[in-house]
Amino acid sequence: MPEVTTQARDVEMPDGALSLEWAAVTHTGRRRDVNQDAVFAGYPLFVVADGMGGHIGGEIASASTITRLREVVDAGSVTPETIEKALGRAVKDIASHPEATDEGTGTTLTGVYLETAGDEPHWVTLNIGDSRVYLLRESTIVQITTDHSVVQELVAAGRLSPEEAESHPYGNVITRAVGPSESVTPDYVRIELAAGDRFVICSDGLTKELTDYGIKHFLAEHADPAAAVDAMLDAALENGGRDNISIIVLNVGPVDAGASHAPDADADSSPAAN
Description:
By secondary structure, this protein is of the alpha+beta class. It has helices spanning about 55-75, 80-95, 150-155, 160-165, 205, 210-220, 225-240; strands at about 5-15, 15-25, 35-40, 45-50, 105, 110-115, 120-130, 130-135, 140-145, 185-190, 200, 245-255, 270.
């Protein structure tokens, strides 16, 4: 099992400092030969990419996308504009690999970043595909992102119930991805800052094995992000581990006067994994 550790950072805000704690993991699962997922967790951006495609196409797609987004973080300006430029570069990277140009090659991209410019700092979620961002606030868990999938379109049209969607044969067919042929614009959702919030960013390898209630249960059982990530990963593997599994848990809170989190950029980012 991969070793998971909790990273932390204090962020100065107009109304006082904000404390962020997070942990990330990616795992091949029990039934796949390779891991086509990739993750990046480094302030202010926390994202998961779930690659798709034969041979090594999915690995190339997810790794290229994460690498380009890491460059955005390193440059110091995470905005919709810089994200979309990075995705355009990732599309060119993917297309430059002959083994990654099959029609089915691509990657999802899902995550959240902290926007501190302006008078009202806030979170922004971004989403392409069917990986997900969940928010636990005041004991209620909500899926913030909307899946770009055939099944979700059927649910939205009233032709399929959420229960029927869970076992639908087209459950893995997505309608939007970062691929080798064209750049895709993510959906964005703005979320106000609130101390006590907890985000879960995950590939569908987790949600195939755990319900929303299960995710909420493990968050309630484990306040520490690393412990929560470990518990969710263990449960997903025990429930079958049918796909690659990637999870980020991000805690948001006020700074504890008795603790100080070093703002060292080298200490607060998890490397891309694929």
